[in-house]
Amino acid sequence: MERNTATPAIRVAPPGPRSRKWIAYHRAAAARVTYVEGFVWDRAAPAIGPFCTDPDGNVFLDFASHVGTSLLGYNHPELLAVSERLKSIDPDRYAGTDFISAYGGEPERVEVPTPSHLHHKLLEITARYEFGTAFFSNSGAEAVENAIKICYDARRNCGYGFCFLGAFHGRTLGALSLNRSKRLHRSWYPQIPNIVHLPYCTCSQECHCGFWLGPIGSESRLAQFLDPVRGLVDPAEVAYIIIEPVQGEGGYHVPAAAFMTEIGRVARQYHIPLIADEVQSGMGRTGRWWASEHFDIQPDIIVTGKALRVGATVGRSELFPKEEMRLGSTWGEGNALSSAIGYTTIQVIQRDGLLAHATRMGEYLRQELQELQRQFDFIEDVRGLGLMDAIELDTVERRGRILRGCLERGLLLLGCGFKAIRFLPPLDVAQRELDLALEVLSEAFRLV
Ligand SMILES: Cc1ncc(COP(=O)(O)O)c(C=O)c1O
Q: Does the C-beta of 62 come closer than 6 Å to ligand 1?
């Protein structure tokens, strides 16, 4: 398969007979989760950049990128090369919070990047925040768990946490206590107490969400809550404020600049640690290393995962526990292959100028989506930053029909929020690939 000439090509309506076999086999023993109906990725079949193949030979243009985890698309040569070098070493996952691993001579000469190299690399791309410490885990949710544990530990006896409506932070018990996007994530599960939520403000002219008590820029509900005289919570009792600088699962909402400035201001005023959850928005997805960089905030901890291939909690050293055994897990710091891939991903983004590329391609994509919005009145909104973009539709039913229509024509997309569709192409997406996707999308629009 050649990336420059590949196109989506559907030979059998997905899921075809071979895909259906795999689906039935998998489902017979697997838990019910969140599968996308109709798409099966055949790992043994050709795939390159945003193109992949299913067991029936259908070629898909994948603009879901495994929910943002394959940041450089399928089979990027540099990532293949680094995994090739590690493939004859076992264990690939080792007890990394108990044993440190080296690779060859001197650590400064990066022969094959180890988790220790990835720590340093993460400090490099968070340099503007003056972070000094990183800790790895297996998932975004674990990285969130570790971030809030670090804050509870640093601010002993501070029981409160603040989160925002529409938030998604993961599905483990601690992380799900912070979710405010869908009831189903939390219902019937026990949760961390004293989590306060506030509106996530995306308002532009007037405030409709209630975060501001008057016009935008007036007193905020957060400031009111924490006011030392009239407030409801003593700021000294707050362990953290956690926020997605662009909301992911909740609907790809870009917050208002004034709202973010206010969150940063209040956090600073009361010395409350600010956690930026960049599991989905980080690693260059929005055209900057961190979506936080688009705003006037200074996070104390950044949480990331997905595109990095390991969960990571990076932050100011003084917040991290001083005692041993407060953090850790068997595979915590010890995922050799994923760390090497994460490190190389960062290197490729740096070398190929992919932050600027993502900014340009994102502007082009949104401009073309806005053009479609002028033609189809069921598109209520076009939004995003860099290559983290979405359209809002009028009904959830129409969204379902459009997603189905795209899949049947070889374009893989994902929903988010209640009736939005997200676009997550690889960071090195070519304009030709965006045009191919837009062609399929407008065809699907015409049919609904
Ligand atoms: C913003 C955000 N935080 C946390 C998570 C949880 O990450 P994981 O699914 O790797 O546990 C996600 C996953 O989608 C996310 O988007």
A: no
